[in-house]
Amino acid sequence: MFEVLYRTVLIYFVVLIMIRLMGKREIGQLSPFDFVVAIIIAEVAALPMESTDIPLLRGLLPLFILAFLEIAFSYAALHSRWLRQVMCGSPQVVIKDGQILRAEMRRARYNIDDLLSQLREKGYLDPGEVAFAVLENSGRLSVVPRSDNRPVIRKDLGLGSGSDTRDEELPYILVADGEVLTRNLSAIGRDGTWLEKELQKRGLTSEQVFLATYSRDRGFFVSKREGFHRKAAKK
Fold it and tell me: Among 44, 70, 103, 142, which residue has the least CB neighbours within 10 Å?
């Protein structure tokens, strides 16, 4: 009886420390990779707690190996956009300008009932009220309402710098952790020369940029890699 109690308490604290070491995303929104690791850890941790015939060290060893693999892959993913996409996938736009993109939904194996349910949870009864809906890697739906369905703000009342009746535009990611995304540059009708000129105005090169985005309404946004200092500017 005492051995079961001892094993349970010890493994509990070991798993708790492992989860903390693996990062806060394990507690919040899990990617598919993190979800699989969490399930395996739960199954592996239960074995030495239930069976006293398994040596404690042998029961803990798989947990340490899983934690090491998770931390190693997470660290590698910080430096590789390709690896992040392989492990976690990419967000998908399922509604654009009030129109449901059926091809994207089929690619994500996401049905219309799930879409309408998540829209209702966010207070939207009609997809026509939505400018953009993005299915995130975690399976959650991010919604950007059309301009005529947004809450009233100071700018709408003429208390800010003016009002803008255009629908929201999702910003295009042009540079991610020093990597130039040429597909997104083409989507906004620009090229690498234009990007380098914009960065040179700010005394930067693409290798020095942690994140650079562009949208028609917000303009050009740059976040430096060193210390993640931010600066934004309108074109």
Answer: 103
